[in-house]
Amino acid sequence: MINPLFAIVFFVYLTVNQSVKTRRKNANDIISSLQSEISHGFTKEKFVVDARDFSRNRSLSFSVTLLFMVNFLTKSLSLEIVNFLSFLKRKEIPQKSFSKSAFVQARKKIKPEVFSYLNEKLIKEFYTDNSAVKTTFSGKRILSVDGSRLTLPRTWELEEIYGRTKNQTETYIIQGKACVLYDVLNRIAIDGILSSVDTDERIQAKQLLNSCRKGDLIIYDRGFASFDFMYEHKERQLDFVMRMRLDFSRVVKDFVAGGQASQVLAIYPGKNTNLKEKKYDENTSLTVRLLRIVLPGGEIEVLASSLEDENQYKHKIFKDLYFERWKIETYYDELKNKLKIEEFSGYSNQSILQDFYATLLVSNIQSLIVEEINEELQEEKDAKKYRYKVNTSLSYGFLKDRIIGLLFSNSDMNKTMEELKALFKAHLIPIRPQRSNKRNIGKYRARAKPIISKNQKDSL
């Protein structure tokens, strides 16, 4: 449960730097930056596999292929094509019919990185001169990095690239390890990686640090804590909050035994650390701040942070600050259970990566619209028992097909946006405060598909 005092302090932090921004950008402003890139094929030369691809006037152009791929392809391709063409016809957007085979051949000509490029463009537009951007501690973005396994189609190609996941028997599945850099305040996926299932999350996280900017504050679970990883943040001038294992090192054990709430200490590389090709040696130290967090049940957590100033960063803010990391967990829930990211539209690695990066892009488009509406709802004062927010699951269902109207310049974007907002506002759900559910970590150990509860029916 969020501490009311922290909520007030957090709000003050969020508003500190807003006066220097020029204006508040709405979702239309930001999403429209992609229209010319997609509709006019400005990205074609960069992201076709061969320079001769899409040079002829075919039924499936580069732009139409992109639009089709971002349209939540979770059903049979034949059915998706029929629905896609029907929607274009209703909107009076000219488009020749095409077959499933034509689409499969067309997507082979497009590099998956095109969706990463479009996502970067969307993100840059969002963070540039925009008073709607939420930051804290005098302008810091609050980010989180975490990984999750995605179950992939069982093919020889994907098994070779991503590896097997086995239990005690000979039964196995193919899984990849996704890792996402997520802005927890603005609910934006800044970057993501899909790697082999046995890839160390810290290796993925280091790559994602390239998408951070100086001064960002990044929150991590205990699986990321290491001297090397903290050193990497110091080198890049990035701040961090990491949960530590209670037996992480002698320094952490002594801190736990000492009973102090907060202490600034020096830590060193572990005795068995491989220092080959490292920028530091066994005598190199890092100054970090350890914080004791007592949970409602009496359990103790230890956080390590680069925010050393105890006057500027009070101990009481860290419990709720670390709780912000939970939003990346709910983001993975959206990807898997609402966006159906594991229901891939193809079997090749190229198709898998196309779907993965396209899903991150679509999730950001949805988030921009939903967050804008949620903020409008919070500003409304009425006599209702609860405050309300957009139903996330239904919002993706309403975005199906209509995303074409947002991204295709031949359609009326404003009309589509108003239609979406009206649908979102017509299906709100109440925000019930002080609710908590005990986490059942082992409920999916059997790897069986979970039964969908009554309030979690599929919307795609």
UniProtKB/TrEMBL annotation:
InterPro entries: RNaseH-like_sf, Transpos_IS4, Transposase_11. SUPFAM superfamilies: Ribonuclease H-like. GO terms for molecular function: DNA binding; transposase activity. Residues 138-365 form the Transposase IS4-like domain. GO terms for biological process: DNA transposition. NCBIfam families: transpos_IS4_1 (NF033592). This is Transposase DDE domain-containing protein. It comes from Chryseobacterium polytrichastri. The lineage of its organism: Bacteria, Pseudomonadati, Bacteroidota, Flavobacteriia, Flavobacteriales.
